[in-house]
Amino acid sequence: MTYAVQQNDRLTAEIIDLTHDGAGVAKIGGYPLFIPGALPGETVEFKVTKTLKKYGFGKLLNVLEASESRVEPPCPVFPECGGCQIQHLSYDGQLERKRKMVRDVMDRIAKLPDVPVHPVKGMEHPWRYRNKSQIPYAERDGKVVAGFFRSGTHSIMDTETCLIQSTEADVVMRTIKHGLHELGIKAYDEHKDKGFLRHVVIRTGKASGETMVVLVTRKRKFPQRDAVVSLIQGVLPDVTSIIQNVNDRKTNVIMGDETIPLYGPGVITDEIGGIRFEISARSFYQINPDQTEVLYSQALEYANLTGDESVIDAYCGIGTISLFLAKKAKEVYGVEIVPQAIEDAKRNAEVNGFANTHFEAGAAEDVIPRWYKDGKRFDVLVVDPPRKGCDEHLLRTILDYRPKRIVYVSCNPATLARDLRILEDGGYRTKEVQPVDMFPQSSHVEAVTWLELN
Ligand code: SAH
Description:
alpha/beta; 23S rRNA m(5)U-1939 methyltransferase; iron; 7-stranded mixed sheet; 9 helices; iron-sulfur; CATH 2.40.50.1070; metal-binding; S-adenosyl-L-methionine
């Protein structure tokens, strides 16, 4: 007999699993309930907040028996803020968890139970690691609020600090919040589509110490522009670029098309593994600089280059992995869909003296088949796609032209496993997987996979 779970029920249950986004899973008469903040092995008391046909949600009330891996989350807005999901799990527990998540999809989706998934390479100090923050601003009760969205909503949790972002970002976040109020500048009101400041994006070059502040505004006309610029310079003398980005659309996309420099060169520099990179406001750049070096070194190791290889870096961003590879390869061809990132990549290759690189803007699934049709041949292919994984057409091109080695850098184990199955069926063998923790305290998992043509 199944127990019919009702909304508002107060129940006690044992947590048997953790979802990929960090919620505890309990089963009542076979009916799964997701309870954020609860950990596997714990017995908890919770209130049912929502019931759907196949599963429901609960709010954690009391931990009756705590997991040995439970720690006190240091952040005051955890777990309501959606930024981190597993601060309440010890860091060792987080790393173990992430390895298990990769193992699980390798077994279940890729059907590769024998492929080794190594222990996750983690950080020594898994806090304050982000070099980029994107902070939404809003008006609430006549006051400017700023912080991060309450999990699963568009309601901002007014926050003074975020423990995974830089202290510079904390200072800028607070200063602009209090400063706008004093200057009488309104933050954006999403419902009325009114107000001025939508987001502040802060980027720091860890190696260079340079900081870029991007003010994303609804209109181009900037009231008291100079006062806002001085306000930022006043609290952060090291700020090297201040930029206005205009986004007048009703959209969740943070940045609009128009970028206006207010101060400085409009780019920041950073260094990874002895290579210097220039990064512009809208280009993708890995957010955890310490772990980026670990990630790229792993990709380079799996690429196993001798100096004779022609290599593709698909989804190359500003050419970071490309230049890592170019140190050891005959030549590297990079492709990326954002034209500005390709401009950065070309400049970065030039500044670092890499003449053996070629970059092209476009979709990987369009550009790579064209390179092959033009007669180019490649020995090694590195892919680092966004969460949705590799495009089907790109996978088909790989199976048609069969480069002998593939290194797959992935930020989403589920699509990685899906793509590995396709590549396996097409004749590749997955050798091993090395997860790297790019996002401590969050449930995101990054992994590097090595494949060889059979
Ligand atoms: N390898 C880079 C970037 C990885 S993020 C780094 O480590 O920094 C994934 C990148 O893929 C982003 O820069 C995104 O703009 C790009 N992208 C998304 N879809 C694409 C497509 N269809 N073809 C090429 N690039 C794409």
